[in-house]
Amino acid sequence: MKAIDLAGFEACSAAILSDVLDGMGLMGQAMRPFMRPLDENSVLIGRARTGLYMPVYETRAGENPYQVEIELVDDLQPGDVPVLACNGPTTRLAPWGELLSTAAKMRGAAGCVTDGLVRDIRQIRALSFPVFHGGIGPLDTKGRGRMVERDTPVECAGVRVASGDLVFGDADGVVVIPRERAGEALERARQKLTGENHTRAELEQGTLLGDVYRKYGIL
């Protein structure tokens, strides 16, 4: 399968991509609105690497509760985005923090998305590492949750995600584009961007909204 052109999506926005996916019949690709960026100026574009969490209620002697997430982070490639599914929003699991952000950034990861909690937020912001989260809290996952599988299809904040799908996040939210539809989505997004630019230019000249909409069909 042809590699996703990540750079081609840099001119896009979550709103434009959501509209494009709606037009492709994919109307469930925007994560639920509780998903927010730690820094609203950040933009995230990358390929999903999924991790599935389950709740636990004890810590077993001799066990490394972080084993699977360590394996995932150490295997990240440039442009990858850990997408951690915790069945959020949750008050229990904070699977992401400063040290994982540091390790992921050094691997070239593009950011992180989780419907669980994040912590160490001042330190993550200082790293300028894009993180989209389902809440903020200080709790460690140890004794509360564990990543049980990686690179398996998951549901994160209401959207099905598979490793290799494109993930785009900005201040409006997070959108997931199935890998096999990414090329089509990018071409449609470019067309929509051109139409929006024409629409904006005419509105700025004082043309009536109804007239512009009849001309371009974009609102």
List the helices and strands and how they pair.
Layout: H1 14-23, E1 36-37, E2 44-55, H2 67-74, E3 80-85, H3 98-106, E4 112-114, H4 121-127, E5 131-133, E6 145-150, E7 154-156, E8 159-161, E9 166-170, E10 173-177, H5 182-204, H6 209-216
Instruction: Kindly report the name of the CATH homologous superfamily.
Output: Ribonuclease E inhibitor RraA/RraA-like
Which band does the percent of strand residues land in? Answer: 15-25%
| Inertia-based shape | elongated
The strand count comes to 10
Number of H/I helices: 6
CATH class: Alpha Beta
How many angstroms does the end-to-end distance come to? 34 Å
What can you tell me about this protein's structure?
30% of the residues lie in helices and 22% in strands. With 219 residues, the protein is of the alpha/beta class. It has one domain (13-179): Ribonuclease E inhibitor RraA/RraA-like (Glucose Oxidase, domain 1, 3-Layer(bba) Sandwich), CATH 3.50.30.40. Strand 7 and strand 8 (159-161) form a beta hairpin. The radius of gyration is 19 Å and the shape is elongated.
Features:
eight-stranded mixed beta sheet; 22% strand; 10 strands; Glucose Oxidase, domain 1; elongated; alpha/beta; 6 helices; 219 residues; 30% helix; two-stranded antiparallel ribbon
In short:
With 219 residues, this protein is α/β, with parallel strands linked by helices. It has one domain (13-179): Ribonuclease E inhibitor RraA/RraA-like (Glucose Oxidase, domain 1), CATH 3.50.30.
